[in-house]
Write a structure and sequence with these properties.
Length: 220
């Protein structure tokens, strides 16, 4: 069982290539994500799925797009929270909550609490998340304690989660872009050329096969 992370890049470019406003790409991405979630949950290969929905740098985008994306995320959670309970999905949020819209923040907190006893599959939504920001927040929590590998690891957003094994990034971008600087340090990366709205179950299966064919050395 692995901890899989997905960086769903290219949603805006997918929409613009079709003459659509940027948020239409995010709407399509939400639909596609649901397909990936179902596949991952039933595959028997994935114990945790981390999905980077919005970075700390994404606040620099046009306010209209940001607002639409927040609405899409809120709508998705409202529609799926009961399904999470039915299907044994534990929902977690990584990142900051203080800058999110109040209704979305409450929804995140309530869904985390409601699904806290579901351990069959974990969905970790990275929202207003950045790797540097996570480390800064972790170090501030130490409050004068010794700064060690173990103490920082104990104060990342969800220290109970295993480190990330595989990261998939779509849209042909070959960058880590401030993602999971601590917990993905030994992760394998697979880069997919097409945009996330076009990312398929076959792509996901291919990425897992690629991961299986690699030999992980962990610095040894």
């Amino acid at each position: 069982m692995i901890h899989l992370a997905i960086i769903p890049d290219g949603n805006r470019r997918w929409a613009l290539a079709r003459g659509l406003p940027p948020w239409k790409g995010h709407e399509k991405a939400a639909e596609n994500f649901e397909t990936m979630l179902k596949w991952g949950r039933k595959s028997g290969r994935i114990s945790t799925l981390t999905f980077w929905a919005f970075s700390t740098a994404n606040w620099n985008r046009e306010p209209e797009e940001v607002n639409k994306l927040m609405e899409i995320l809120e709508k998705y959670l409202k529609e799926k929270r009961e399904k999470f309970l039915e299907n044994g999905v534990r929902f977690l949020h990584s990142g900051r909550k203080d800058r999110l819209p109040g209704t979305l923040r409450t929804l995140l907190e309530d869904t985390e609490q409601e699904t806290g006893k579901n351990w069959t599959f974990t969905l970790n939504l990275a929202l207003d998340y950045g790797g540097k920001d996570e480390l800064l927040r972790a170090i501030k929590k130490l409050s004068g304690k010794d700064v060690t590998d173990e103490s920082i690891r104990a104060h990342v957003d969800h220290p109970e989660l295993p480190d990330i094994d595989l990261v998939i990034r779509t849209s042909g971008e070959y960058r880590t872009s401030d993602f999971a600087l601590w917990t993905a340090v030994y992760a394998e990366w697979v880069f997919i050329d097409h945009y996330f709205p076009d990312f398929s179950e076959a792509d996901l299966a291919m990425a897992l096969q690629t991961y299986d064919e690699r030999r992980r050395r962990f610095g040894r």
